[in-house]
Inverse folding.
């Protein structure tokens, strides 16, 4: 066993109980990076560098206002609308 693995085990043993789930998820993330082609594509996608239009800003503002006012569509309603 390498010193690094021993140190990691010691650190895990010292974690508070309420942090174990987060530590497990993080270690799984590190282990699995590169295995999921969709995740890889998303993480390596180019940023949208086009300037936001006035129309896009207005639509985003209206969407935020609708959300804050509770004007939303439930998943069941959306499925019905889409015929799913």
């Amino acid at each position: 066993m390498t010193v690094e693995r021993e140190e990691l085990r010691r650190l895990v043993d010292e974690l508070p109980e309420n942090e174990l789930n987060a530590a497990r998820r993080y270690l799984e993330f590190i282990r699995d990076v590169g295995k999921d082609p969709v995740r890889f594509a998303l993480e390596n996608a180019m940023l949208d560098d086009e300037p936001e239009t006035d129309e896009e800003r207005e639509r985003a503002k209206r969407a935020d206002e609708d959300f804050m006012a509770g004007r939303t569509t439930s998943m069941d309603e959306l499925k019905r609308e889409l015929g799913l």
About this structure: Residues 3-82 form one domain. The first helix runs from residue 3 to 14.
